């Protein structure tokens, strides 16, 4: 009786509940703009924000992912999460049911098309085109509104996925003419789809907000979150996190033969002796180390990226610490750290992987993390490929960007395509460096003996001949 009475007139204070539980439960989606497992553990804009909030509230964070946008809201309805933090747009329909926080980011919905194909410039143009959006997204809601008011012939399909990558993939496969995604998501994913461009902005900038469960007393929690956002705004944290997670696209170096050629004659000479020495100390082919250093920093020992990686070998702070690198901007320390890291990865790979595949897999792991590489190998095996062959694993790494595949892996979403591109680039630089040596008619070093050098060195050199 008492319980029923209480339930009927009083809702639970969600903040008090979180604090009593000692845990903040967040529902999100696994994607590069929200949450994913990076080289050094969980990361992403929403992960970073909710982790800070949990700290502020003195509780631990439990972040759960679902595979579609409607699932996110279902979790809230079922009181299975305290907060939905997933790059969600503030919409009229959503706020009818779900309490929303203040905005912590703004983005614009954009119509994306393939450059060279017909470029729509208005809603009117879109009516004759095939169009896809994420199911249950703010964009589906927006299109319904546009259809009702101005474009009754507008038609589209809704894809039941949580990551806009699927939409861009459909566009790439020519299964749709255009898609609508948020500007922040397109900016991050575009490097994987160099032929795709923005046709036009579909309306005004919109607010990104967190949503809370509908039937709780959220007043205190909302207050705490909005204060938390204000504080992050005023101390610059929000700006820093935006820049780190959304402000850049993890630059995939396009193979620019001209730039590389110039760098070989202008920049490399200053570091060649050093690279050779470090490579020798770590028993790595120097061309390989040089190629990796170029891919990472274009041989610039002072290179820094907004994600906090630095130096000739673009080491993260934790990795550098682990490797005993005190000053990441010191070319020699960075090269030694990177060489050691690469060797360590090669050592850890299963024995069955022979050269040169061993080198390519270690390079992929250098970029994406060894856990994700193991996931790609397991997936390769499941699909009947050979997990010890790079050519088979290379085909599966990009699949780790699709929920259909990564939901059955240990480490989840990974920027697999980027790792594959990186390995391709390095192999290209590697062979150009070798080729340059050969054309300069430098005598090749004698092949080292088995007991001193590991097979790595021999095989890599053999491959390049
Ligand atoms: N912001 C979108 C939403 O709230 C999701 C991302 C997208 O579809 O680009 O539904």
How are the strands of the biggest sheet laid out side by side? 4-1-5-12-6
Number of domains: 3
The number of helical segments is 22
Ligands, ions, cofactors: glutamic acid
Enumerate the spans where pLDDT stays under 50 for 5 or more consecutive residues: 1-8, 248-255, 441-465
Q: What proportion strand?
A: 5-15%
Q: Number of DSSP strands?
A: 12
Query: How would you describe the shape?
Result: globular
In the CATH hierarchy, the architecture of the largest domain is: Orthogonal Bundle
- Which fold does the CATH topology of the largest domain refer to? Lysozyme
Q: Sheet bearing the most strands, described?
A: 5 strands, mixed
Mean pLDDT score, rounded?
A: 87
Distance between the termini: 84 Å
Global Rg: 25 Å
Assigned CATH class of the largest domain = Mainly Alpha
What is the topology?
Elements: H1 2-9, H2 14-21, E1 23-29, E2 36-38, E3 41-43, H3 45-57, E4 60-66, H4 69-77, E5 83-89, H5 92-97, E6 105-107, E7 109-114, H6 123-126, E8 131-134, H7 138-149, E9 157-159, H8 165-172, E10 178-182, H9 183-189, E11 196-201, E12 206-211, H10 219-234, H11 237-245, H12 257-266, H13 268-281, H14 286-297, H15 317-322, H16 331-348, H17 357-368, H18 370-382, H19 390-396, H20 403-406, H21 416-439, H22 455-464
Parallel strand pairs: 1-4, 1-5, 8-9, 8-10
Antiparallel strand pairs: 2-3, 5-12, 6-12, 7-10, 7-11
Helix pairs in contact: 13-14, 13-16, 14-21, 16-17, 17-18, 17-21, 18-19
Bound molecules: glutamic acid (GLU).
